[in-house]
């Protein structure tokens, strides 16, 4: 976050002494949406009282203790890597690099392969969703029709002119996305597109709700919003707005982390 030794985040700061910044996010929104789309209600219920990663460890890694993050940081890191790295079909080779680079976990090729297969066996609902989307894509190719995905927020995603083409000696399905960009597609990639689109729609409603309540957004980064507010505005007030469910997704426990500052910080 530094350029030429300058902390660029601190460049964004309040100019009015009567105001402050509140930085809030939608915590682990994509895994929550993925569980909702795939009908993993037990997981979502667990997320009401524990982190996404701890719930995953309890469901799939045999964790029986208390706070996973405090009692077993290594298992917590593995659970986090599995949740964030494997929900969209990551291969064993890519997962090994991902786990090392982002989570400091060293896995042998065999361990990585076992981890991927274990995740897919225990998270069979997710794999079923990948397969469903793969079937829908192939059906659109066979019918020579656009693939249209209806989102729960009443938006549509359209993949235009899906077709097969050779790539490195094997057939691959391509489609044209918004803006005319052609992209390779398969089931787990469609899953990623859909889950991120739904998460985006949840976040968009957060921004509209903040605006409706007179709170000015000055910056967004992924699922994080930075607002400039009077100093009397509390973190609890903002988090209550951020974690309000959309009407079309009433049964997903949302969570938020928020801090206040005179300048933007991570």
Keywords:
10 helices; 266 residues; globular; alpha+beta; four-stranded antiparallel β-sheet
Question: What ranges have pLDDT less than 50 throughout 5 or more consecutive residues?
Answer: none
- Gyration radius from CA atoms, angstroms: 21 Å
Strand order of the largest sheet: 8-9-3-10
Total E-strand runs: 10
Please tell me what the overall shape is. globular
Number of helices: 10
Q: Which structural category fits the helices and strands? A: alpha+beta
Characterise this structure.
- By secondary structure, the chain is an alpha+beta fold.
- The chain contains ten helices and ten strands.
- The strands form three sheets. Strands 8-9-3-10 form a four-stranded antiparallel sheet, covered by helices on one side.
- A hairpin with a 2-residue loop joins strand 8 and strand 9.
List the helices and strands and how they pair.
Layout: E1 2-3, E2 6-7, E3 19-25, H1 29-37, H2 41-46, H3 52-60, H4 68-71, H5 73-86, H6 92-103, H7 109-122, H8 124-143, E4 147-150, E5 156-167, E6 170-176, E7 182-185, H9 187-212, E8 216-221, E9 224-230, H10 235-242, E10 258-261
Antiparallel strand pairs: 1-2, 3-9, 3-10, 4-5, 5-6, 6-7, 8-9
Helix pairs in contact: 1-9, 3-5, 5-6, 6-7, 7-8, 8-9
TL;DR?
By secondary structure, the chain is α+β, with helices and mostly antiparallel strands. The chain contains 10 helices and 10 strands. The termini are close together.
């Amino acid at each position: 976050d530094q350029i030429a030794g300058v902390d660029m985040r601190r460049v964004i700061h309040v100019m009015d002494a009567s105001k402050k910044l509140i930085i809030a996010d939608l915590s682990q929104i994509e895994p929550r949406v993925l569980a909702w789309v795939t009908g993993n209600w037990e997981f979502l219920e667990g997320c009401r009282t524990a982190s996404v990663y701890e719930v995953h460890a309890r469901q799939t890694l045999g964790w029986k203790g208390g706070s996973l993050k405090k009692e077993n940081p290594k298992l917590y890191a593995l659970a986090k890597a599995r949740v964030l790295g494997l929900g969209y079909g990551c291969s064993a080779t890519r997962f090994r690099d991902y786990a090392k680079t982002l989570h400091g976990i060293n896995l042998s090729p065999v361990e990585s392969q076992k981890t991927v297969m274990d995740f897919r066996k225990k998270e069979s609902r997710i794999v079923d969703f990948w397969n469903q989307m793969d079937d829908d894509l192939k059906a659109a190719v066979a019918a020579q029709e656009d693939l249209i995905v209806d989102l729960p927020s009443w938006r549509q995603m359209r993949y235009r002119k899906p077709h097969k083409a050779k790539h490195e000696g094997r057939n691959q399905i391509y489609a044209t996305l918004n803006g005319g960009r052609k992209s390779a597609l398969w089931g787990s990639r469609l899953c990623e597109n859909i889950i991120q689109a739904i998460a985006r729609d949840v976040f968009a409603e957060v921004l509209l709700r903040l605006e409706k309540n007179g709170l000015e957004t000055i910056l967004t980064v992924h699922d994080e919003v930075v607002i400039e507010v009077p100093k009397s505005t509390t973190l609890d007030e903002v988090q209550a707005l951020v974690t309000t469910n959309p009407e079309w997704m009433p049964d997903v426990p949302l969570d938020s982390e928020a801090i206040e500052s005179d300048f933007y910080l991570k």
